[in-house]
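Subject line: Sequence and fold of a protein, written as structure tokens
Area: Proteins and the way their chains fold up in space.
Start of record: The labelled sequence and token lines come straight after this line.
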Amino acid sequence: MSFPILSRALAACMLLLGVAVQAQPQAWPAKPVRLVVGFPPGGIVDTVARQLQPRLQAALGQTVIVDNRSGAGGTLAAAEVARAAPDGHTLLMVFDSYATYPLVYPKLSFDTAKDLQPVTQVASNPLVLVVNPKVQAKDFQRFVGLLKAQPGGLNYASVGPGSSNHLTAEYFKAVSGTFVTHIPYRGGGPAQQDLLGGQVEMMFLSAVLAQPHVNAGRLRALAQTGAQRVAAYAEVPTVAESGYPGFEVNSWVGLLAPAGTPRAVVDRLQAEVRKAVTEPAFQQRLREQGLTGIANTPEQFAAVLRTEQDKWARLVRERRLSLE
């Protein structure tokens, strides 16, 4: 073989080798990972993200950053992550309100079913029906009786139309045959402030956020919305066991990635979240806050989202609720 032919053959081999090397997937993570949170610091999504952050960082061997991008009920953060490169370096922590985005925001710039993919739910907790202490009823049954005796006489707070506390209250009204006036607020802070001040009498509040106020006597817990009681509210009955079987609503925090993120990356993330939530110290911290670790599969999380979307869409349709 002549030298020119050999050189050409060698060059061709080197070219093929270069293509093969380039075709190999990059090791993940190759740079810092962002956990984008669509809410301000201090809320349940931010709290869970910051508890998860050091465990993911240690497991992945890369810096993990919690990046708060609040606004428009979390949809601004979701839109940003939907546009991000699907390489596993930009992730989204969401609240249960994610399931109602198509109902509340019909002109979203992204498609929740196509532009973001489920990784795993991280944790869940029930909502707690809390009332201002000025309300005379001391337990759930008496409270329902009070509502029936005074239809429209009491008000309930929500963090806005289509939020979990709005839809849960409407669900409760439907099954109990009561009427309470909805007072929507622009966020949890103002809603809780007026609830504590007595300007509104009741709210279905996340167990995590209600706990310090209940413990301090600033609010009274009458019922919780999960299928079973959680340890943090062991003395508080569920709505289901108080005469409304089948009533179940859970607030949850989940992890999403841009659509097209490699399945190997998604599976690794889900596995690392599972390791974290089964760690005894992490489990104990969750229990203290009224949370339960989940870490289900992407398929299971997707099924939860479909079920939630169908349930709330049916409620909105049947109750003719305004979500504006």
